[in-house]
Design a protein that fits this description.
The chain has 418 residues and is of the alpha/beta class. Helices cover 35% and strands 20% of the residues.
């Protein structure tokens, strides 16, 4: 049986006859590209994910308990000095790397292009999100006399635009040889009947598989092997859109080393019991981030003996791992969550359909779902005004306006200290 016939048999077995019809219409390069894609897609996995969208979510009896943390502002002088020395030694010795998740587009911001290319109006002239992160790394490099390897994860959708942008701006002065760009993995989009969507380029339409795909993408791209070749021992993973993100926090790193854990994270305390953020907890004895919608109201409002929220440590995408932890997470299958969204597609007549209502499922895994593979996590509570100013929405909360205010206030405070 030739390659095309094998693909046809496979497609028919998963009830994807519309793709069989498309395959028969194509020739040359287009046909080969579609055959390559069919070879790569795990149809069994996609159909299982689709079937799961029709099932009621079973709420299992889970033992949820509060998680311990250290408050950076309340560390003793001795603790702080000990942690900072341990962290500085690792960074100075070249065993530390940083990953920036930059696969998203700036659509919600009304920005046409990768999110990292959005310009925040700070100090009149403005700074791009990539530029703000570069400044943070450059400051650490100067302070610790090193060059931290910077890995930037794009998506297939925005990879070219990101590379072109960084090249045009000469990586904002960051040493180009220290920057590695790799792409995030993708999964097909499926309609309500279990049919995979067709895109304008006559392929199966795919979308990035969520930030949980970072681990496997690091491995599949060769970035993880590159880190190991460089002797990296600790890896920080953060998003592109937090303009107060500290990517080389020696206190966080030193605390993780001292506590002999494989994963660590920085948190900020919830603004109020019902703030829509994921919070750290322990579930069935393992670290977990539980989404706000899944935390019972009574638990969300519970306070400890100091009057602090018992489940008040928000996950702010500020995560630290040993290289072994990244390797472990890259080989473990994560839970996929489905999101029902609007996605355009090409119909059987070759016409583009732009739906007005959600019409298809996108499957995503979340980076914090890997925390459950480990016995413990070290959490350092930071301060919202020092550590968390995300740019997510065009207006209102977590918008360019709020991020600008927080960023400028932070740097005004820092400059007064100098």
């Amino acid at each position: 049986m030739d390659r095309e016939q094998e693909a046809i048999e496979l497609l028919k077995s998963y009830n994807q006859n519309h793709i069989v019809n498309l395959l028969k219409k194509l020739d040359g390069v287009k046909k080969q590209e579609l055959l390559d894609q069919i070879d790569r897609i795990d149809f069994q996995q996609i159909m299982e994910l689709y079937d799961n969208t029709k099932k009621e979510i079973e709420i299992k009896e889970n033992k949820i308990e509060a998680i311990s943390y250290l408050d950076k502002a309340k560390l003793s002088k001795e603790q702080r000095e000990k942690f900072d020395k341990l962290g500085k030694d690792i960074i100075r010795s070249g065993k530390y790397a940083v990953v920036t998740m930059a696969g998203g587009q700036g659509t919600r911001l009304g920005h046409d292009g990768p999110k990292g290319t959005f310009k925040l109006d700070v100090y009149g002239k403005g700074k791009y999100l990539f530029e703000i992160l570069k400044d943070n790394l450059a400051e650490a490099n100067e302070k610790y006399n090193t060059v931290i390897p910077w890995y930037i994860m794009t998506s297939k959708e925005n990879n070219k635009a990101t590379v072109d942008f960084l090249e045009k701006h000469n990586y904002f002065g960051y040493p180009k040889e220290a920057v590695t760009i790799f792409t995030q993995s993708e999964l097909p989009l499926v309609d309500t009947e279990g049919k995979l969507l067709i895109s304008k380029d006559m392929k199966i339409k795919e979308a990035s598989d969520g930030n949980g795909g970072t681990y496997s993408s690091l491995r599949a791209s060769g970035a993880l092997a590159d880190m190991k070749d460089k002797g990296i021992k600790w890896v920080f993973i953060g998003g592109v859109d937090n303009v107060l993100l500290k990517m080389a926090d020696v206190t966080l790193l030193g605390m993780a080393i001292e506590k002999k854990v494989q994963i660590a994270s920085k948190s900020v305390v919830k603004a109020n019991p019902h703030e829509k953020v994921g919070v750290f907890c322990k579930m069935n004895g393992h670290p977990k981030v539980i989404e706000y919608a899944e935390l019972p109201e009574k638990m969300a409002e519970e306070v400890d003996s100091d009057g602090e929220l018992k489940y008040g440590e928000s996950h702010i995408m500020c995560n630290l791992y040993t290289i072994e932890a990244i390797e472990k997470a890259s080989k473990e299958p994560l839970i996929y969550h489905s999101a029902f969204k609007k996605n355009s597609y090409i119909d059987e007549d070759g016409k583009e359909v732009i739906p007005e209502e959600p019409n298809s499922y996108k499957f995503e895994s979340f980076i914090f779902d890997a925390f459950e593979f480990f016995d413990d996590i070290a959490i350092l509570r930071g301060k919202r005004e020092d550590d968390f100013a995300p740019v997510k929405n065009k207006e209102g909360v977590d918008s360019p306006k709020t991020a600008k205010e927080l960023y400028e206030k932070f740097w005004n405070r820092q400059n007064k200290k100098v």
